[in-house]
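Figure 2 data, in text form.
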Amino acid sequence: MGMTNSSVRGDFILEGFSDQPQLEKILFWVVLISYLLTLVGNTVIILISSIDPKLKTPMYFFLTHLSLVDICFTTSIVPQLLWNLKGPAKTITSLGCAVQLYVSLALGSTECVLLAVMAFDRYAAVCRPLHYAAVMNPQLCQALARVSWLSGAGNTLIQGTVTLWLPRCGHQWLRHFFCEVPSMIKLACVDTHANEVQLFVASLVLLLLPLALIFTSYGHIAQVVIKIKSAQAWRKALGTCGSHLMVVSLFYGTITAVYIHPNSSYAHTHGKFISLFYTVVTPTLNPLIYTLKNKDVKGALGRLFHRDLDI
């Protein structure tokens, strides 16, 4: 009866993991802990990158933007997810669904472009070390950051609006844990072939094009690294690029499965768990990946805590 009333009011029913109640209890604590780690880890990166003079470099400028994207991205999804995992109510209002769709899509698209920008930064650092400061000047860095955010905003305005305009004929049962474009399209009661084509084209532009740019950047980096005979230079190059490559692998390895082949049997069967990985797990791992073996960040943290102790 509650679900029927929700449908009448126009609320969406988020099925999520309700068919596995025991899993819901475990997921609640896993998601909650991951979310708290995401907030703490990414906030620390933003803080130290902003106040430590030694981290005033293009790499940490873009890393700050990535951390901000991750905080906002998870915040647009996780609180509602935790609410649905904890209680019997699995609904989200139409307005809440629209906001979640717009915000999460914008931030996810922004991250795709931002990771490509960070790959270009690593290319400039390894392949053009003598001209790095001139190439990655503050004006270019700010322009690239703006392009990342604007591309995300542009994509969500188009994709989000077209998706929400689809007639649903009372279909409000969303077989997902948040309002995401591929799952929202499945609610439509009309032929969605044009929407699926549009989603595929948008995915090519904002997923595969940035990924191609990342591969191109690292292709040039690999050519330079292969010619390096110094073990110390090898380690420095790997340290410079290893963290970013790991983040790219985690993010693109999951999100492409959902957006490039949304109707595949794999995406249909495992789609919720794939989405859970890039919306909850990846933002948690990113700060850990960038800090665990990063001497600059460890040094900045040491100076920060030492300063606090002195005060």
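Caption note: The two ends are 60 Å apart (CA to CA).
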